[in-house]
Amino acid sequence: MNEGGWFRRLVNRSRPAALGLRRRILLIFTLGSLLLSLFLAITTFGLARSNLITERVDTAVTTSQRNAQGVERDLRSLPADAAVAQASLDRIGVEDYLIWYRNTWTGGAATFQNPDVPSALVTRVIEEGESASQIVRIGDELNVVVGWDVPGIGAYFEAFPLEEADSTLANVRLSLVLAAAITTGLGILLGIFAARRAVRPVGSAAQAASAIAGGRLDTRLEPTEDPDLRILTESFNDMAAALQQRVERDARFASDVSHELRSPLMTLSASVEVMEARRDELPERAQAALDLLSSDVTRFQGLVEDLLEISRFDAGAIRLHMEELLAAEFVRQAVAVSSLPDTPVEADERAELALIRGDRRRLARVIANLIDNARAYGGGEPEVSISVVNPDEEPISHLRIVVEDHGPGVPEEERDLVFERFARGGGAGRRTGSEGAGLGLSLVDEHVRMHGGRVWVEDRLDGESGARFVIELMATELDE
Amino acid sequence: MEDVGTRILAVEDDERIRSAVKLALEDEGWTVDEAESGEEAIEKFQRSNPDVVLIDIMLPGIDGFELCRTLRRTSDVPVVMVTARNDTHDVVAGLEAGADDYLTKPFAPKELSARIRALLRRIRPGAPGHARLSFGDLELIPDEGKVMRDGEEVHLTKTEFRLLCELAESPGKVLSREALLDKVWGYDYFGDGRLVDVHVRRLRTKVEADPANPRHVVTVRGLGYRLQT
After folding, report:
1. Which of B16, B109, B190 is opposite residue A337, by nearest beta carbon?
2. Distance between CA A290 and CA A280 in Å, rounded?
3. Is the pLDDT of residue B24 over 90?
4. Residue pLDDT, tens place only, B130-187
5. Which chain B residue shows the shortest CA-CA distance from A338?
6. Is A270–B20 a contact, with Cβ atoms under 8 angstroms apart?
7. CA atoms lying within 13 Å on the CB side of residue B13
8. Cβ contact (<8 Å) for B14 and A269?
9. Would you call B88 an interface residue with chain A, using a CB distance cutoff of 8 Å?
């Protein structure tokens, strides 16, 4: 992984936590508004209910008092008979009444019988001579039963159904439930809004962090007036600045080192060339030494060039010169100038007419590096092929450039590692060659990624031993 | 006057590099003069009249760009610039200062000799073909190495002249950067297109009435350049 790796992981790890905060805020708002609206609804309902019932009871008391007075009048006149009182009650349409006269119950309808009068009420009215009311359930309905003492004669009871109050209460209940639901809904909306707002700085911090991880080291959070957030913003920006400074210092160091190396290298390579021109005049042992010197000077030169290119990557100083390239022609040319110019190149029919957009010299370097790699670790006789990823696609969108070798292959667990800088895996003896892995494959990786493509290594598809390096790039069709 | 008399002036402040490059170039049979600063280079240039000048841009005193501009005021000698970096800035600045070609350190001396050979070849354009070519107000006389605009001679460097000749070979036909790199500079497929672009820009300032709206050397987007009347 490059140095952005740990950082990216950190950012990824912080993402579920950000969701958690949002959910928590939302949950608090939802529960809060739910509880509050329930509390309000219940209280309101209770108040409404008691008001309604009180009012109803008051009416019942007034009405029944009037009726009781009529009954008393009837019972006090002659002939004193409950039937007379009953008749006058019936006349004015009173139904649910009972008259206690001479120790007997008279009156009563199907909906109101003497057992319906609670004994406590009977006791209070008949025995203690008070007037009282009580709410009782008769059948399925709530009723208020009002009892009037008719002093010295008996008592009068009348039942009033509370059903009207019931239906009003049902309406109140319905509107309260609706109001509670709406309030809770508003609470949830508010919660979402608040959660978003609360998390927004986290979101922008995460975005900035992944931008930094992606190489845009000059990314900063916008300064804010909010004192709570300022701590986050400021320390984030300080961290980013420190990181940028450090990365730039490292990059500058690598670049300075390779710049410094170039002058002696220049002298070396020119001198070696002069000696090579006189190779035949040298004794045999000196010739062998010269060959070693010359091949290592070349290697050294390649290494310094790679190092410079990598430090350009790290400094973000790479500018690609994008051109439209005929993929197959380009690959053939690139192979022709590589270290194994006779490597066979095969292209399928549609790949022959495919265009890729790329930096010619950098992509050529990618292919040259893969061929160098095959030469060093892959048995030395690679094959190159170019094919359209999905041949049925119209128009084509991606193509693959594949370099296969006949080496021991790359073991599964090293397949990401080989693209790291100066990677040297232990397994299969792949990295034990005299030429170090160096920077070649990591440059391949960086270049391909800069071109918006990807590269990976897998086993050969034909089952033979060997590595198969695949570069996938975006492509278009040549229109003529 | 064959290669025997070819003189090269190598301007480089690092003595070791200078010596090694001199050794390598002398193996090609060329005579190499050395200069370690721009000032010395100007003096030696006037005295020895070299066929090719090799300039490292990092010089003490007047730098390589300035030296190149100074030489260009009086001479159309082929110049190879040696840049420290492959940065667009250095390369383009070098070419705009008047260099004909460039190399990036560390280069193989073989590569340098190849570049110098291409430049020497360019000095003596072969296959004249036509005595005179006319493009509106522009007139080309390949045999004499002359270009006239409105009857007045325009002074071109050898590379600019060669570039114009290549475009004039097939008037109206588009030549790609790769083709021009191959024909004018002797580069393969992986030559640097910026060489062509900067030279075309310089050529336009000399042959076009309005270089910002070229009428003769026309860019064909994505394809290359074309010469038209």
Report:
1. B190
2. 11
3. yes
4. 667 788 888 888 777 788 888 888 888 888 988 998 888 888 889 988 889 988 888 8
5. B190
6. yes
7. 13
8. no
9. yes
| B209 Cα to chain A: minimum distance (Å) | 30
Establish whether this prediction's ipTM goes over 0.90.
no
Of B109, B193, B222, Cβ closest to residue A270: B109
The answer to whether the CB of A318 falls within 8 A of the CB of A285 is no
CA-nearest residue of chain A to B113?
A270
Range with lowest mean pLDDT among A79-93, A429-443, B209-223: A429-443
First to last CA, chain B: 37
Are B71 and B138 contained in the same domain? no
Interval A187-245: pLDDT, tens:
899 988 888 887 777 778 888 888 888 778 888 888 878 888 888 888 888 988 998 88
User: Tokens for B109?
Assistant: 């001396």
Q: Are residues B14 and B100 in the same domain?
A: yes
Same domain, B111 and B23: yes
Same structural domain, B155 and B182 = yes
Residues A156-179 have a mean pLDDT of: 84
What percent of chain B shows pLDDT beyond 90? Answer: 39
All domains of chain A in start order, with CATH: 8-167 (3.30.450.20), 236-314 (1.10.287.130), 322-477 (3.30.565.10)
Last residue of a domain, one of B93, B123, B153: B123
State the Cα–Cα distance between residues B94 and B100, nearest whole angstrom: 9
